[in-house]
Amino acid sequence: xxxxxxxxxxxxxxxxxxxxxxxxxxxxxxxxxxxxxxxxxxxxxxxxxxxxxxxxxxxxxxxxxxxxxxxxxxxxxxxxxxxxxxxxxxxxxxxxxxxxxxxxxxxxxxxxxxxxxxxxxxxxxxxxxxxxxxxxxxxxxxxxxxxxxxxxxxxxxxxxxxxxxxxxxxxxxxxxxxxxxxxxxxxxxxxxxxxxxxxxxxxxxxxxxxxxxxxxxxxxxxxxxxxxxxxxxxxxxxxxxxxxxxxxxxxxxxxxxxxxxxxxxxxxxxxxxxxxxxxxxxxxxxxxxxxxxxxxxxxxxxxxxxxxxxxxxxxxxxxxxxxxxxxxxxx
Length: 331
Description:
The structure is a single chain. With 331 residues, this protein is of the alpha/beta class. The protein has a domain at 132-330: von Willebrand factor, type A domain (Rossmann fold), CATH 3.40.50.410. It contains eleven helices and eleven strands. It is elongated and about 150 Å long. The protein starts with a helix and ends with a strand. The model is unreliable at 106-125 (pLDDT under 50).
């Protein structure tokens, strides 16, 4: 009984599988019939449109206006050219009678050229007319070395400084020789200046002069007779002593300054008709130097050669040289 039931179950499953296969075959045949045997459309649809040009209303109005103008406009009238040959006289009128003069602009040539160098220097044209380009030169002064295009030597020739210099073996003649040696060693395109001071100030020239042969010779003649003693104090002088020296030196717009001093910052003072020379604080002196420096195109290097300086004065001069990128040499 059990065996017959199992056989019947197998037949049922086989029949079911057969029916499923027949159904799949039928669906496949139907699909082939629909896809392959279905007639296709004879032609693809076409999309057509008529060409239409539309112009904006403003453009239409413009074209209409242009057409109307062209219809109304006529060719311009032709005007014959006018020509003449007798509007002006052929010749020039006669010259008027001018009184004669015996004035000769060159008869006072010496007067006109007496201060030419100073005027050109004030106008900044002295170097241009020399035809010499600025040049950098190495310079050594009492063992201190530097280089620059505009070198100014500032010397305190007061009696106290010269006495201290002699104590160290440096006479005024030796100092003058050192100044001349520095100038002679410069390139002709390098400019130099000399400032002498005590309470008053005296300069070799109101400008830095190129170190040409003629200017070196002029300095050689000027130094022995002028670089000594005390320059006179003049009326209207704003500064005295070291302050006056830096005022004169900065007017030359140097890039290197060599200063000979003993570091004592005296200032001439007139009180109740009496003249005295008290020392001023270093900060007061430095404030004046800073104020004068504002007119310079750049900060110069300041080197200081000091003779028998006191400890405090040497410290002040070292501060000054250091703040301006220079050095101090004590002798």
